[in-house]
C-alpha cells in the first residue's frame, strides 16, 4: 500500500505553482487593465486563454478589491458587456500604471537572475 505524501503542500511542485500564481496575480491583472478596461468576470477566461491554459485564476475578486483599495484600479460607469448584461467595469489609474511598471521591473530582474542560475551562467 502506498503511503500518503506528507510533504507540505508548499514544498510540492503544485505548491510552487500556487505560490507563483499568488505572487504574480496582481501583475497579470494590472497588465490586462493596462491594455483596456475590463469587468471582473472576463479576467479568468482571458488569463487562461492568453496563457494557453497554463494559468487559471478562478477567483480574481480579492485581487481586484485589493488593487482598487490601494488606488491602482478604479470603477468606471456600468455598461453592457458582450453578453448583454450590465457589468461594472474597472480601469487602471496613473498610480496603478506606476505600480505596474515597478512590478514589471522586479519581475524581469528576478526571472533574469533565475534564468542565469538555471543556465549555469557565472558572473564575471
Task: Chart the SSEs and their pairings.
Blueprint: H1 13-35, E1 38-39, H2 43-50, H3 61-69, E2 73-75, E3 79-80, E4 86-87, E5 89-92, H4 94-118
Antiparallel strand pairs: 1-5, 2-5, 3-4
Helix pairs in contact: 1-4
Characterization of the model:
The protein is mainly α. Helices cover 52% and strands 10% of the residues. It is built from 4 helices and 5 strands; from the N terminus they run αβααββββα. The protein has helices at residues 13-35, 43-50, 61-69, 94-118; strands at residues 38-39, 73-75, 79-80, 86-87, 89-92. The protein has a 3-stranded antiparallel beta sheet. A two-stranded antiparallel ribbon has the order 3-4. Helix 1 (13-35) runs antiparallel to helix 4 (94-118). The model has no long low-confidence stretch (mean pLDDT 89).
Amino acid at each position: 500500500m502506498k503511503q500518503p505524501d506528507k510533504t507540505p503542500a508548499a514544498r510540492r511542485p503544485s505548491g510552487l505553482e500556487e505560490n507563483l500564481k499568488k505572487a504574480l496575480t496582481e501583475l497579470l491583472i494590472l497588465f490586462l487593465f493596462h491594455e483596456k478596461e475590463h469587468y471582473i468576470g472576463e479576467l479568468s477566461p482571458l488569463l487562461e486563454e492568453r496563457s494557453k491554459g497554463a494559468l487559471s485564476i478562478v477567483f480574481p475578486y480579492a485581487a481586484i478589491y485589493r488593487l482598487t483599495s490601494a488606488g491602482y484600479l478604479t470603477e468606471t460607469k456600468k455598461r453592457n458587456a458582450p453578453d448583454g448584461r450590465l457589468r461594472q467595469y474597472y480601469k487602471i489609474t496613473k498610480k496603478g500604471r506606476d505600480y505596474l511598471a515597478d512590478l514589471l521591473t522586479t519581475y524581469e530582474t528576478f526571472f533574469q537572475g533565475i534564468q542565469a542560475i538555471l543556465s549555469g551562467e557565472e558572473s564575471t
